[in-house]
Design brief:
single chain; about 290 residues; mainly alpha; DNA polymerase, domain 1; hpI Integrase, Chain A; 2 domains
Length: about 290
Amino acid sequence: MEDYKKHIEAFESYLILGGYSKATQRSYTNALEQFFRFRISQDLKGPFNQDDARNYILHRYAQGREWQTINCDYSALQHFYRNVLSIGWDVQHIPRPGVEKKLPGILSKQTVKRVIEHGSTFKHQVFMTLLYCTGLRISEALNLRLEDIDGERLQVRVVKGKGSRDRYVRMPVELLELLRKYYRDYRPEQYLFSGQGTRDRWSNRTAQYGIKRARESAGVLKRVTAHVFRHCYATHHLEEGTNLVYLKEQMGHKSLRTTCKYIRLCKEYQKRVHHPIVGMEIEYRRKRP
């Protein structure tokens, strides 16, 4: 890997200057390192070419990697070839992986309640409640600082969410009251959910492990992760009649099409569809026979 060090450093500099989030920087850099390991294992030497990238993508398919992983590999290599090596990228020769149209797993409200109640500590319970009440991604929730909670306006400020976009998410007063109790018990100093040090951020692994333990303790067989709470937030909101465009903004989706997928998960959504002509008394000028 020593021979590739300069390429990794150049790629990291490109991502920093391009304003990519820390999470994206880590994902893309890791993907590039995996590609370099593949070149070493295949004893590929000499200049980079598009066949190397194409064969690596095919190799990842052969490994049975999920679409999200292969899509990340594709994006990382495309950026590296185009913007660091200044090599063309032929999308006809290397087409982007097609999007998998799998529906996410959803929990009922009763199951969400049961999982939260089985959190091993009050902190774990509050964290899961925050995810369900706001629909935040796990990185967005863990990056929350105390000043991001606006109790007067009942808003949570998300700084540099996905795509480095800021947004405000409305929170119910019940969540605000819960967060105040949590603050009195834990006294975080910087991040809302701190790690071992009061000024350190809680780690993704610890937060996800807490959710896993709560699921097991509650006896829930379905897969439960931080992102499942996000899916439940969206689906349950739609079932309660929340406006789709409003929900798109709350979730930080770039396209309304992304939000629309949750309609297919709603049990009650179709029942509330009423044609506007129903009940409209119109006088028609019908010719009498």
